[in-house]
Structure formats: C-alpha cells, structure tokens
C-alpha cells in the first residue's frame, strides 16, 4: 500500500470501501484502494489487542472479535465500510465510540513521507472526527489496534438497545446478544447500502449552546437534548422529521422514510444531487430551528 501511495503521488486519493464519501461526478486523480488485509490477536490475560489492516471489512472485524470470545465491539456491529475508515470518522453507535477502544493507529504520513504510529490521544478523536479527517490528504491509515476484554460491562443505556433486548426476553445479555440486537435495529431502521446507495447519516447531530437549547425547547416541546462537553446535543433526525422531510424525494435521491438522517440514492443520483438535497434539508432546519447542520460524510471534490 505504501508503494501504491508513493506511486500515486501527492494527488492520489485514498479510499476504503467508499461507504462514507460523497463523490463528484468525475475524479481525475489516481485512486489508491486501501485493500490490505490481515488480523492479529494478542492475548494478555483478560485483555486482548486486536490489530486490523485497513482493508479489512469493519463488520468482519466485529464478528471475528466476538467469535473469539472478546467483548468491546458489539455496539459497533454492522457499520458499513472498512476498518481503516473507522478511526477517520471515529465511528460510533448505540452509546459507544471507536475512540474508546483504540490503542493506536498506524498511518503513512504523506507530508513526512514515513510510517508513524499514533496513540489514541494523538489521533485527536472527537464526535465523528479525528486528526485523519481534519487533514485527510496527509494521512493514510494502514492499520489500527483495539483493546478488547473477556468481560466488560455491557453498554445498554441507548434506549433502542434496551428495548430490543427486552423484546427478545434477554435480561443479562452476552456481547453476541448485544451485537444481534444492534444488527436487528440497524436492519429495521437503516437502508441496506447494497440495495439503496447511501453514506449513513448525512448530517451530524448538532451541538448547540445551553441557552439556545432552552429557548428552543420552549417553542418546540419534546425535543431530544443531551448535555455533552461543549453544549447540548440535539437529534438531527428529529429536526429533519419535524420539517416534514421523512420519505420525500427529489429526483433519484431522497430522505429515508425510517431514519431521516440518511439520504438515499433511489436510482442514478449523483454526488451533486445529494449535496443539493442536503442543502435544502439544511435550509429548512435553519429556518425553523435556527440550527446549522454539518455534513457527516467526507465530501470529495474534483481536483
Ligand atoms: N428521531 C425522530 N424521527 C425519526 C428518527 C429519529 O424524531 O424518524 C429522533 C428520536 O427522538 C430518536 C433520535 O432522533 O431518539 C435519535 O435517533 P437514532 O437513535 O436513530 O440515532 P441518531 O442520533 O439519529 C446516531 C448516529 C448513527 C447511529 C445511531 C445509533 C450520528 C450522526 N448518527 O443517529 O450513526 O447508528 O445514532 O447510535 O451520530 C452514521 O454515523 O452514519 C450513523 C448511522
């Protein structure tokens, strides 16, 4: 992969499985696909370190870890994309973010032209954010090492997960049962990218200041609002839903009827079509709530 990066030159674009990018209609630069495979598990008593090459499929990594009897990745089951992309977005779902499990990430630093190993702190992780996303032309992820445990307090606080387990009559779930519950929820709510092209959540959940959240709550009863570092996090899905976008289409692209945070390709929609629809959604949310939605996927532009 490093040879490919060197051969591709500075303009080369590194792609994993393309599940979280919005592409322009044409790309004129070389593309390096991060397809390097391999998993290595090192057991240290009740803990294990799992190193995954960037080209591994993320859900495959989750399944492998659970199959070997290790806990830690169950809430992150069925997220599309490659393992190498996971730290770039700092993928997160059902109360867990990847950053909580990361020990280190190996990258090729294209500015310094050398391989570097960054510990979790140096990766600059934030909500759907990292150093690698902030400076995407500079870093190509080669592999990542995750910390897993034999026994781990299950994270079941996310309402959907608790409800799903209850529905199955499970009171003390194993990591595998949590993963199965997450898979069922995702299958129910989210469009399968193999059939309906999509980049997952098209917007981030906005974090606004507590004063604005209080004012908003007065005029908009029932708004979801979670206190987080730096303010109050709202549910973008709910804001979009209240603007009436659920299930609406513009040509070949549209808003998913079960989770309006996801924009879907129903035919031959292009990257620019997605961006145009995204802009309309943002405008209505801004007009009704005074809240600016930020795009979640990486938007690639033609050079
Ligand atoms: N909601 C509505 N209407 C809807 C759907 C949701 O009002 O049609 C409200 C509900 O009140 C619900 C809230 O929105 O409580 C949150 O919805 P959900 O639990 O589906 O999660 P989300 O905040 O919309 C985030 C992530 C997803 C992740 C889920 C589960 C972001 C941008 N998205 O969505 O991640 O799977 O939580 O943890 O943080 C992704 O990043 O691509 C992604 C799919």
Compact summary:
With 303 residues, the chain is α+β, with helices and mostly antiparallel strands. Helix content is 28%, strand content 25%.
Protein architecture, described:
The protein is globular and about 55 Å long. The model has no long low-confidence stretch (mean pLDDT 95). The protein is built from nine helices and 18 strands. It has helices at 2-8, 58-67, 86-89, 131-134, 159-167, 175-189, 210-219, 236-242, 271-289, and strands at 13-15, 21-22, 31-33, 39-44, 47-53, 92-93, 96-97, 102-109, 114-119, 139-149, 197-201, 207-208, 225-228, 231-234, 249-250, 253-255, 262-265, 298-299. It is α+β, with helices and mostly antiparallel strands and 303 residues long. Strands 4-5-10-8-9 form a five-stranded antiparallel sheet, with no helix packed on it. A four-stranded antiparallel sheet has the order 11-17-16-15, with helices on one face. Strands 12-14-13 form a three-stranded antiparallel sheet. Helix 5 crosses helix 6. The longest helix is centred in the C-terminal third of the chain and has 19 residues, at 271-289.
- The low-confidence parts are none
Strands, total number: 18
Question: What number is the mean pLDDT?
Answer: 95
Please tell me how large the radius of gyration is.
20 Å
The computed structural class is: alpha+beta
What ligand molecules are bound, each kind once?
Answer: uridine-diphosphate-2(N-acetylglucosaminyl) butyric acid
Strand order of the largest sheet: 4-5-10-8-9
- What is the approximate shape? globular
Largest sheet: 5 strands, antiparallel
